[in-house]
């Protein structure tokens, strides 16, 4: 925790202090993350035809002035393929994380504020979901329903929701025992008010850090599923699928397989660096599964 | 061993079995109940209602989902997981033929990664804050934050493509001599192991450092014991419990990692079998493999908890 967050601050000092406590690595991570988000937004506005265009350059070509990152297994420009894959990589993981954390937060707050049977039931049911390894769970769901982008979002959200619930619940239970919550109850405030106005503002820091962590897990899970050929289906491709498609270039050490692999590595490590600089970051729930 | 410990361990085992039962219900619901009517799907769009009804009766789908679940559960418990929808072969046989290969891979990886992780973890705790410690911490964070297949891809690139030391693919058929076996196992074990080592190392380091903060360690230091003696003879015996816990917990990551590693190295194990089953939507096969993986995972997590209970000195001397 840095001094700026302890001192009572006006809006102006807050704005200036926003990045003050960040390490150099954290700022670098934030810059990398911002870069990929910009690429993802850019890719959404480029016509599809430009993204998947076949060229006469031949397959698995090395880096050249014409194809900066070489060509893929069908002779498509690898740079364009990576740009086209960015929204699928970042977008799917982000939406899934958002859903997982939102649902987890609502249920966690509800369990903490209500207590009793609701709390016990929710905790039991979600603990069952936690005791299935995440990849195994996704494989079973994909076997049952087939793979599509909405399903991938749903799978990732379901897999990471129980973890978010657990964290939020344990944080909210502590706040729920505070005197000011008791005062609010005595005032006759409803459950929804206490959840939203009394507890939520006090756990936003850890909530954000947890969300960042879950975003990394989601990226990893989705990339792994795509790598197994069970994630984003052709002709669409995220970075995991790009590695799988171009695995044939591995024996010649081609850029087409290395580039998407490094893109994933850079993104996940960057997000990790950002999380380490978020206020309220804890290592408690790290590396579950 | 005393009664308190036995009771706690027994409680933990009962809770584990209850979890497994709940997990089996979830797996059955997702694969056999929620996706809709398997008979209709099998016959396609042109099926007459009579044909669908006949097939449903033959497949036993006319009974309630709860009855089918208990039937299926009984079959699983007896080791009869039904017939593969795709090949028509017994699922039990398919699993039996693949399971030893996966267990062998897991065993070799464990034998390799546990000593390495413990050694490095203790060394890091010993030289906390040194360049070696910081480098190792950075490397482990990098390894655990990228997907497993990246580690495997890099390992292939470095050892098989650039250095040409090892074959890029692993076939369990060419394990005729120990040398051959070592060569074909090296890359899968290395890739899978590095992920496990990274996890285990972090936890071991944390466990030892946690002990180093205790008051008795300060006493040992004041006595004038060397750093190595402090760690090896005083901190380590007390950190055994948390470390055993960390080892069992880290090994449960094997189950996730092995799926990727078996696919990328084309290793004929049970995870590869399951991924193929998922791609072909072969439900009985997926159900059987999923239950094996979940059971393995729950056993390891349970083992981790039991290690924690048994190693707790407060419980030992009651």
The helix-strand sequence of chain A is: HHHHHHHHHHHHH
Mean pLDDT of chain A: 80
H-E string of chain B: HHHHHHHHHHHHHH
Helix/strand structural class of chain A? mainly alpha
Class computed from helices, strands and strand pairing of chain B: mainly alpha
Roughly what is the average pLDDT of chain B, rounded to an integer?
80
Write the SSE topology:
The complex is a heterodimer of chains A (289) and B (318).
Chain A: H1 3-6, H2 11-17, H3 24-45, H4 48-51, H5 78-114, H6 116-130, H7 134-145, H8 149-176, H9 179-187, H10 191-199, H11 204-227, H12 239-245, H13 255-276
Helix pairs in contact in A: 3-5, 3-13, 5-6, 5-8, 5-10, 5-11, 6-8, 7-8, 8-11, 11-12, 11-13, 12-13
Chain B: H1 3-33, H2 38-43, H3 49-59, H4 65-78, H5 91-126, H6 131-145, H7 148-162, H8 178-212, H9 215-223, H10 227-251, H11 253-264, H12 270-279, H13 283-310, H14 313-316
Helix pairs in contact in B: 1-4, 1-13, 5-8, 5-10, 6-8, 7-8, 7-11, 8-10, 8-11, 10-13, 11-12, 12-13
Summarize this structure as a short list of keywords or feature phrases.
heterodimer; A: 289 residues; 13 helices; disordered C terminus; B: 318 residues; mainly alpha; 14 helices
Protein model, in words:
- The complex is a heterodimer of chains A (289) and B (318).
- In chain A, 45% of the residues are buried.
- Chain A contains 13 helices and no strands.
- Chain A has a single domain, classed as Orthogonal Bundle (MetI-like fold), CATH 1.10.3720.
- With 289 residues, chain A is mainly alpha-helical.
- In chain B, helix 7 crosses helix 8 and helix 8 packs antiparallel against helix 11.
- The longest helix of chain B has 36 residues.
């Amino acid at each position: 925790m840095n001094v700026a967050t302890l001192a009572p601050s006006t809006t102006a000092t807050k704005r200036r202090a926003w990045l003050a406590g960040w390490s150099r690595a954290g700022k670098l991570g934030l810059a990398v993350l911002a870069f990929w988000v910009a690429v993802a937004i850019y890719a959404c506005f480029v016509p599809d035809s430009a993204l998947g265009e076949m060229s006469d350059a031949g397959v698995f070509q090395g880096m050249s002035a014409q194809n900066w990152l070489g060509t893929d297994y069908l002779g498509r420009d690898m740079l364009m393929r990576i740009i086209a894959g960015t929204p699928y990589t970042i977008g799917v993981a982000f939406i899934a994380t958002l859903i997982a954390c939102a649902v987890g937060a609502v249920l966690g707050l509800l369990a903490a504020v209500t207590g009793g049977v609701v709390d016990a039931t929710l905790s039991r049911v979600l603990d069952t979901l936690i005791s299935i390894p995440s990849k195994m769970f996704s494989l079973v769901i994909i076997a049952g329903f087939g793979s599509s982008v909405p399903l991938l979002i749903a799978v990732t959200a379901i897999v990471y929701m129980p973890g978010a619930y657990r964290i939020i619940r344990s944080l909210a239970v502590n706040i729920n025992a505070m005197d000011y919550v008791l005062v609010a109850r005595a005032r006759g405030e409803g459950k929804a008010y206490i959840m939203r106005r009394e507890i939520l503002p006090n756990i936003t820091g850890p909530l954000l850090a947890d969300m960042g962590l879950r975003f990394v897990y989601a990226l990893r899970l989705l990339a792994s599923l795509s790598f197994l050929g069970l994630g984003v289906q052709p002709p669409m491709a995220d970075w995991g699928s790009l590695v799988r498609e171009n695995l044939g270039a591995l024996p010649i050490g081609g850029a087409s397989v290395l580039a998407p692999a490094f893109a994933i590595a850079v993104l996940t490590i960057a997000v990790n660096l950002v999380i380490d600089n978020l206020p309220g970051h804890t290592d408690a729930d790290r590396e579950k599964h | 061993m005393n009664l308190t410990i036995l009771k706690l361990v027994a409680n933990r085992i009962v809770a584990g079995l209850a979890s497994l039962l709940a997990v089996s219900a979830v797996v059955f619901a997702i694969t056999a109940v929620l996706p809709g009517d398997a008979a209709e799907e099998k016959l396609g769009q042109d099926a007459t209602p009579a044909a669908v009804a006949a097939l449903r009766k033959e497949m036993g789908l006319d009974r309630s989902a709860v009855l089918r679940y208990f039937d299926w559960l009984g079959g699983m418990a007896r080791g009869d997981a039904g017939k593969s929808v795709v090949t028509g072969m017994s699922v039990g046989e398919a699993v039996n033929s693949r399971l030893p290969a996966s267990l062998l891979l897991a065993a070799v990886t464990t034998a390799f990664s546990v000593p390495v992780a413990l050694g490095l973890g203790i060394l890091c705790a010993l030289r906390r804050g040194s360049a070696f410690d910081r480098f190792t911490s950075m490397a482990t964070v990098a390894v655990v934050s990228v997907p497993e297949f990246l580690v495997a891809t890099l390992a292939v690139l470095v050892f098989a493509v650039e250095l040409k030391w090892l074959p890029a693919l692993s076939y369990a058929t060419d394990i005729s001599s120990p040398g051959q076996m070592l060569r074909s196992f090296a890359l899968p074990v290395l890739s899978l192991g590095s992920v496990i080592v990274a996890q285990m190392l972090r936890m071991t380091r944390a466990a030892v450092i946690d002990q180093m903060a205790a008051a008795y360690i300060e006493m040992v230091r004041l006595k004038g014991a060397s750093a190595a003696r402090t760690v090896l003879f005083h901190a380590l015996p007390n950190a055994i419990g948390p470390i055993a816990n960390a080892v069992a917990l880290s090994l449960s990551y094997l189950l996730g990692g092995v799926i990727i590693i078996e696919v990328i190295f084309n290793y004929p194990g049970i995870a590869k079998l399951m991924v193929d089953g998922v791609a072909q939507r072969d439900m009985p096969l997926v159900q059987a493999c999923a239950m094996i993986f979940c059971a393995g995972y729950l056993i390891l997590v349970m083992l981790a908890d039991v290690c924690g209970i048994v190693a707790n000195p407060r419980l030992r001397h009651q």
